[in-house]
Amino acid sequence: MPGSGPKDPDLIVIAEAPARTEDLWCRVCLKPQTRRCEQANHARGVPLVGKSGQLIRQLIGQAGIDPNRVYYTNVSKCSHGGEVGSNPTMVQVRKCVGTYLLDELAELDYSRCRGVMLLGETALRG
Question: Rounded to two decimals, what is the model's pTM?
Fold first, then answer.
């Protein structure tokens, strides 16, 4: 799942891995995917839109940063098939960091960026 947000962010948030909510979020309708989305072949997958993501966006706003000026992504780009609440393995993370995340981050303009926020041990280790 690719990240989402402006290409010239004020902040970059990198979480661990997408949850089921994020995997099933419609990128076109900006809500959980419906049968209509599937029939129209809408792309899906948006990081940090579930309950945790909503809380993070709220806290970012309270810190004085516009949540819409933040680029959100995950160190692991896909659900890893583990138990709910489990972390991806470092092998899964390394595949995503080397293959996808570094290329994704290289496309951003850092001239406005105040920093990078890593959420969780897996994001930090990745």
Answer: 0.83
